[in-house]
Amino acid sequence: MAQAKSRKTPWGPLAISEKQTVQVKLGDLVLWMRKEEPELLVAHAYGNNAQPAETGWTRLWVEGAELYLAPALPDLPVVVRTEHPFCLPPDHSADLTVVLPLWAQLRIDTAPLPLLDFPTVPLSKSWFGTFTDGALSYWVHSDLWRGNSLPNVSPCEGLLAIHVSNNAHEMLQVDHFAIPAPSLSLYSDGERFWLESLTFSYRGQRLHTQTRRRARAPRAAGRSTEVAAARESAPRTFAGRVFGRRGELPGIGVRFR
């Protein structure tokens, strides 16, 4: 196979000539795409020294369609285990920012659904919650940023602003918590990606936490536009398991940044 031509910009239209192989790096994900009309051959792997397996090519029939790569949010909830847990007293609140990895979708202009859908970093899945009150989720290790402090992010990461309020008569330990990623939209301010902001209202261990979607990017995003709709529909306000409890068996998270 001929030497793959690399792209500097990960998102947007793909210009692939006949018999040409294009390589795209998105976080830890490497994509190879080769056009052999009427088919498009696609392979993927992870890591800096990744190479496409000879038997790992997917063949897509996309004759005459315009190809492009689009960012998206994970297809399962994401449990964030913070590197620096803290406690929130009753009647107190905190503004947090976390970073989540994005997904890469290979799309064509003539189909509403993506042709292929890949995480930009390999993530592990684990169960969050109890057997009767839980969900299969991705687990990641990440820092938390407080107040107006914002981290630098790559084009394959999104910022999520969260307002946490402790409305219970007990301490809230912020150690690991679940993000309903499939129910959120993704926005861009032209430089960074932002998830729609969330408010968590903690009501005690015996009650579900109330989650409110703000249905827009946070103020820090300025003038932003929606670039990816939510994968799943959800009400603006809903209750469910958000914060992990002490003594629970944690998932095997991946530190992706």
Tell me about this structure.
With 257 residues, the protein is mostly beta strands. It has two domains: 5-70, no CATH class; 71-255, no CATH class. The protein is built from no helices and 23 strands. The protein has strands at residues 5-6, 12-14, 21-26, 29-36, 39-46, 58-61, 67-72, 78-88, 93-101, 103-108, 116-119, 124-129, 134-142, 145-146, 157-166, 172-179, 186-188, 193-195, 198-202, 209-213, 225-228, 237-240, 254-255. The model has no long low-confidence stretch (mean pLDDT 88).
Features of this protein?
single chain; 257 residues; mainly beta; 2 domains; nine-stranded mixed sheet; five-stranded mixed sheet; 0% helix
How is the topology of this model organized?
Layout: E1 5-6, E2 12-14, E3 21-26, E4 29-36, E5 39-46, E6 58-61, E7 67-72, E8 78-88, E9 93-101, E10 103-108, E11 116-119, E12 124-129, E13 134-142, E14 145-146, E15 157-166, E16 172-179, E17 186-188, E18 193-195, E19 198-202, E20 209-213, E21 225-228, E22 237-240, E23 254-255
Parallel strand pairs: 1-3, 8-13, 13-23, 15-18, 15-19
Antiparallel strand pairs: 2-7, 3-4, 4-5, 5-6, 7-10, 8-16, 9-14, 9-15, 10-11, 12-13, 17-18, 17-21, 19-20, 20-22
**How far do the termini sit from each other?**
33 Å
Total individual domains: 2
Instruction: Give the integer mean of the pLDDT values.
Output: 88
**Percentage of β-strand residues:** over 45%
Question: How many beta-strand elements?
Answer: 23
Please identify the oligomeric state. Answer: single chain
Tell me the Rg in angstroms.
20 Å
- Supply the number of helical segments: 0
Main sheet overview: 9 strands, mixed
Helix content: under 10%
- N-to-C SSE series? EEEEEEEEEEEEEEEEEEEEEEE
